[in-house]
Amino acid sequence: MTDIAKSLQKQDPGSELVILYELEYGTSSKAYFFAGLKEDAATAVQFREVGGTVRSYTAIPIRAEGFEINSDGAHSRPELTIGNIGNTLSGAIGNTPLEDLVGKRLTRRTTLRKYLVDGPGDATPPIEYPKVTYILDQLKARTPVSITYELVAPFDVAGVTLPKRQVIAGACPFRYKRAALSVAREDRVGGCSWDAKFPGTSNVLFMKRDDEYILPYSISYTTFSSNATAGNYYKTTASLTEIQANGTKASRSDYNYWQCLSNTSATPADGNSAWRRVRVYQAYSASQPYYGYTDSKYNHFILESGVLWQVKKKTQAASAHSARQEGENWTLGDVCGKKVSSCRLRFQAKEQTGVTGGVSLETSGSTPLPFGGFPGVQQRR
Question: What is the pLDDT of residue 295?
Answer without folding.
Answer: 94
